[in-house]
């Protein structure tokens, strides 16, 4: 009994909902092409920072899609979210994954390619 007073189980700590990152500004103006190059370089080297490649792949997929699908990707991969904007996450084995804001959103000072 007592179902009406039951609360959701937060046992694994993975119940945090993803949110859009806060706006940020790059130290200098940056073009979309430069931003994409920075992102590609990060994702190409990310597995060398430690952790598992499949988790890095899931984080990349989550970073490059809308919030609803990103939440599904993170949940299905067993990723534990410390920061709701995905800047700090952990896998089920406790490995830490840090994502720079530039892979998650665009800066406020993004300029058109010239």
From TrEMBL:
Source organism superkingdom: Eukaryota
Pfam families for this protein: UBD
Name of protein: DC-UbP/UBTD2 N-terminal domain-containing protein
Positions of the DC-UbP/UBTD2 N-terminal domain: 16-113
Amino acid composition bias (Basic residues), ranges on this chain: 16-25
Organism listed in the record: Carya illinoinensis (Pecan)
InterPro entries: DC-UbP/UBTD2_N (IPR032752), DC-UbP/UBTD2_N_sf (IPR038169), UBTD1/2 (IPR039869)
Annotated stretches, region: Disordered: 1-30
């Amino acid at each position: 009994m007592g179902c009406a007073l039951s609360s959701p189980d937060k046992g694994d700590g993975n119940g945090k909902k993803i949110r859009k990152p806060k706006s940020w500004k790059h130290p200098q103006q940056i073009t979309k092409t430069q931003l994409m190059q920075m992102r590609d370089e990060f994702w190409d080297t990310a597995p060398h920072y430690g952790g598992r490649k499949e988790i890095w792949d899931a984080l990349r997929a989550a970073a490059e899609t809308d919030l609803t699908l990103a939440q599904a990707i993170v949940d299905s991969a067993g990723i534990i979210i410390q920061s709701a904007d995905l800047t700090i996450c952990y896998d089920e084995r406790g490995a830490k994954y840090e994502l720079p804001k530039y892979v998650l959103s665009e800066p406020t000072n993004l300029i058109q390619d010239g």
